[in-house]
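Below: protein 1.
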Amino acid sequence: MSAQQEDGCWPRVTAASLASGNLAGTIVSLVGKVQSADGAGRWRVQSADGGIVSVENAHDEPAPPPTSIVEIMGCVKDDGRSLDFFVSRNLGDDFDEASYCEMIALQADPKYQEMFGVAAAMARIP
C-alpha cells in the first residue's frame, strides 16, 4: 500500500479487484459465502463476483453456514490475493450479490469518486 489508510475507511472488494495484487496491507471488506473451512483456520470464500478468496482465520471463528452471505473484514496478505480475518457479520440468505457487484463497479469508477470518497480512492491505489 503506497498511502496511509485512513481509520474507518476501507475499500469493498471482490475476488476480481483483489486479483491485481495491489492491496497488500490494506484493510478491506469482502462479501461472499464461506464454501469450506479446513479446521485449521483457513476458509475458502466465494466472493460476490463468483471468484474464490482464501481467508486465514487465526481467531477460530466458526464458519457460517454455506447458504449465508457474510461480510468479512480483514487485511490483505502480502500475496495481495488472500485475507487475514478480523471479523465477520452475517448478511443473511437473501443478500443481492449482483447488485452489490454493480455497486462495487460504480465505486471504482473515477466518475463517482466524490460520492464514494476515500474508500473508493483506496481501491485504486497502485
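Below: protein 2.
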Amino acid sequence: MDKYKKDIEKFGFYRNWGDSKEYLLSNPHLACEDTANYLTYWCVNLQMEEKGALMKQVAHQTIVMQYILELAKTMEVPPIACVPSFFTKIQTCDEKYMQGFHSELDAFIGRIERRAKEKTDKLMAEIEAVKAQRMEMEVKMFYSLY
C-alpha cells in the first residue's frame, strides 16, 4: 500500500463529489479495501495529532469508499464498477439516504475519536512508566554513591 499512499492521501483531500468520482475512475486501483483501511489508519493518526478538521474530511472520504465497497459486495461486482452508480445515487438521493450517510459518518468519527484517545492514553501511560523507571534508577545511582 506504500506504493499508493500518496494517491490515497490525495483522494482523502477531495471535498467535491464529482472530483472524488473522477479521481477514482482515473485511479481504479484505489477502489479497494486497502484504501479504506489506510484512510481509517490515517484518520486515527490525524486525530492523535489534533488535526480534527482534516480527520473529519478524510473520514468523509473513508465512508465514501466503504459505501462503494458495500455496494460492490451487494451487487457482486468489482468496486470500480460501482463508482459511477454510487456518485450518481449520492448526488441525486433522497433526504433519508443522505441522512444515513451522515449518520454513518458521525458514528465513524466517534469511533475514530475514541480509538485515538485510547492510543494517546496508552502512549502517555508508557511515557510516564519510562519516566518513573528513570527516576528510580537515578535515585538508586545517587544513593549508591554514598
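The chain has a mean pLDDT of 92.
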